[in-house]
């Protein structure tokens, strides 16, 4: 570091801070994961499915992927361990991580959360051991985001005490269902429950889809979604039901029951509220996808930063100095702000996993408000992590040039596998609207915040006084913000309180103006309710992303507060400066429009960001080493080969200089003799 | 269109404008391309290579891919036809397009441009017929962008009148060489020419690498770059030479000759200038890559826009209206500005191809200034097209959700195949620096502008008074710009002259300030020449992109001027409004910082962009239909299936409504019975 700081930072000190509450899971994974789990390249789709299917059953227990299940059936009642174990698995193989998430998070998780004791007793042990492979069959070809409108029906017949599960037309087929095309023997199938001639909304049943010989059950048609852009090891399939008989007991009946005579009962009145309560219990899937995206971004950055530290480019004629990619300002701009954002989102994820764990292991009645906030936070961070990952991996691929396009250098798989994360487990745009709705209504929406955009009058009536709740390290942040002078121009650009206040003020302003516009729209566009929202959709989405930016900044600030090693603390503080200022710089148009930056201050921010890049450049490798991804896990040819290659080139060039005659062509350009 | 315009626009009228000077090539391709060239999904790498290799030899002549060659050998002396034929081929299969580009553009092109008559007589007919498959072996593992520093040597021995071609160490192996791993029998190999103990810089030789049985020639080791992220049909390989004997006559000797006694002569003094003159003749490769990227973006937008017009999402309860994806503001923001940019870049490409054709078919001495401008324009547009394509295809994939992730819907291949375009045929960042250098020096750099960043003092001395040259429809643009009042606030946001002036003023300001900063740096950082450039690298790159934005805007304005159909002209004018205003909006921070926008005007621009999106929404499908991509070429399952699927869903829903009993749960949310 070029300032007067005490020496370089030991990546191990940073790693301790990053490893967090479930550090033991991370350390165990680093030390003990067998080579068979390392990334593989060049497989066919069939080979990938075979390998992933086999490896799923060989995952070590101490990785934690089944830890969330109740102890009684083989779990550890430790949802946090499952989340963090998933993050480690995501460094190794994203298909395996997704398949594990389908099997245990979605399928097993649905049986736990939506089923009752007799389902748990009958199936959970086999699910946990992977003896019983299963799917989560909610999405239909015709309904993805709008799942409350799905069309599969399941109609009760009191005479036989069975349900009739039916796909009424081709668009209602279950689609993109992981574990369906090859392995699944049962599926949790979501359908509209109809009894006594009346629908009670979407419920879930446990339905056998394959017999022990692997043949489809009667009435069940299993199709294959075919080759995909990535996640080749996940067997996504399609399920169609032709009047399939389902015993009454197979209804997962925690939230809705059907008596033998067909009478329907439920502890939750209202189809919509019941459906979203059911969905809410599946929040872990969103947290897991966010964590996997975070891991993928870290893997990509580790590769790009280390390569950029080795790879020489355009050596300066006549200079002693070797220039490597990481020395270029444009290269730093590609990688360093993304690295800073990765740090901020990491700490936000750590807090989310912790909150999730505490909520899911708490006893006593569910705190509705807390649950809504958790769902909202999970949705917002899932969107942030996955968009950040796909953009960062893209930048890392470009930063590695042609080498980044070769499968053997890992980046193609990282890009292809994570690409779908922005639209599955919730389309990011829809998730941001969920976040916005929570902000607009203070999480007081009695319907739960997971529904689609609708009910204009309802939302307009519910919007209230805007009070931003601080998310982390509340008292510290309150102190920092309060200490900031009233006039922006008097504050140093590096003032943390000023950073926090800028983020807060932007969020507050966006929220207040969104509320004003929605109310105005409700008054003037009564005949066009769709337009009330649609006309401000961009504004609403920006409100949500501003909120998430603040969540990330506050989490990073809180993380720094917990850091005891002084050198690590100082480095993280500079990283935080970069995160805050590059985020403000990216949105300087908004801040200038709203009088929160003067033109001079805005230009000064750009200059300071460039200064920060220079300052952090020597620490780039330390910052990625701190992620603690074992080299073998990266399985990246250029990382193995480039340093040695550069050494050999330098040695060869030195030989040439020692033995060559001087060229007479000295005035016209570089010689074949290498610049030195 | 919602304004008082005369009726809808016939896509055929738009298509005529877009098809341009080589419309006959495009029409012939649309009507006559055989089904065997249609996209294929789910192949292994081996299958893709086999198919592409076979199809290369079956491409119809009237597609134009070999038209650039001299008539004498089977070409048509029509470089424009080759460029446009390549754009059409890029709609079908990007591996095939790239392989054709390697075989005829790079390999064949190098033989034409760098060789002399005896090379042409001996090889061109076989190259054109694809009987002789060849590679372009320039890039090395250790040197990609910095090719002037490549390490392969080729040393002349007068006693044997042969050269010794040698790879001095592993990092000097030729890498990422298309047509090498499977098919190539000869290669144009670039190496440092050494004779009489002295190097004369990089030259090219025609070197057999495989014999007629497919075995590697003595001393030649052929490796495989292995699986890649995309372009599976291109057999990228690695070439290592172990003291391979190359006859003297195999030197491609247009720009440098070696006499039997080893004496070197050249019409161009100076190794660097000679090298870049040689490279300059290969400008067609950059134009071709830009054109292919343009085609890929158009294919992706066609899919996403048509799907978004069919796919219903969150139907509004109780309303008559069906809501489809394209009705959402956020969806429009994903697709429409990208569509407008695609139009602007299309017209810029049309002009570039025309200029290239005219330059390459001109007789008489080469106009150096014109050549430099052409190289610069090709570099800048290659960067713009390829970044635009990869970002647009990403957005289109997300706009199509899970369906966009399935290979059968084309988007995965478009994304994977085009991903490398941003870093091959010139890394985009390096290309932008080339553009900037041309702007800074008025193309007066006697070295040619293709070299890497260097020679600080030279550049600083050469920078001159900034005069922006208008690129297209000069007199029209001059009139429009001159008519704009002095004060921005007095001008309507839709004023075309104001758009042009904003783009011009930004470019001029960036250029002038870049010059000031470079001169200041030259004075104060003499001891650190690398920092003179590096500290302003972001500024310099932005100058280049601002220039390219202006090139694109002027080309679109000129294209509108050529449009005779009134309805088409009005539609294109709105598209141009959207391109101009969304580009300004994206960079509003800069414009606000530099006093070219007030906060109020900036916010008004956002409002106007949203209005334009609404206005253009009904024309989205027309705008992509105008690209004229035959449906079969898209080979996209959702385009075939989604409209029918939606109809079936609507019919099914209508049946349900007709026969269902009303639910009593009316106060709590949507029923299973579909909304409306």
From TrEMBL, chains A, B:
Its cofactor is FAD. Keywords: FAD, Fatty acid metabolism, Flavoprotein, Lipid metabolism, Oxidoreductase, Peroxisome. Its EC number is 1.3.3.6. It comes from the Bacteria. Residues 135-244 form the Acyl-CoA oxidase/dehydrogenase middle domain. One of its GO terms (molecular function) is acyl-CoA oxidase activity. Residues 500-638 form the Acyl-CoA oxidase C-terminal domain. InterPro entries: ACOX_C_alpha1, Acyl-CoA_Oxase/DH_mid-dom, Acyl-CoA_Oxase/DH_mid-dom_sf, Acyl-CoA_oxidase, Acyl-CoA_oxidase_C, AcylCo_DH-like_C, AcylCoA_DH/ox_N, AcylCoA_DH/ox_N_sf. The keyword Oxidoreductase applies. It holds the Pfam family ACOX_C_alpha1. The keyword Flavoprotein applies. Residues 280-440 form the Acyl-CoA oxidase C-alpha1 domain. Its main location: other. GO terms for biological process: fatty acid beta-oxidation using acyl-CoA oxidase; lipid homeostasis. Residues 25-129 form the Acyl-CoA dehydrogenase/oxidase N-terminal domain. It is found in: Peroxisome. Belongs to the acyl-CoA oxidase family. PANTHER family: ACYL-COENZYME A OXIDASE, ELECTRON TRANSPORT OXIDOREDUCTASE. This is acyl-CoA oxidase. It comes from Couchioplanes caeruleus subsp. caeruleus.
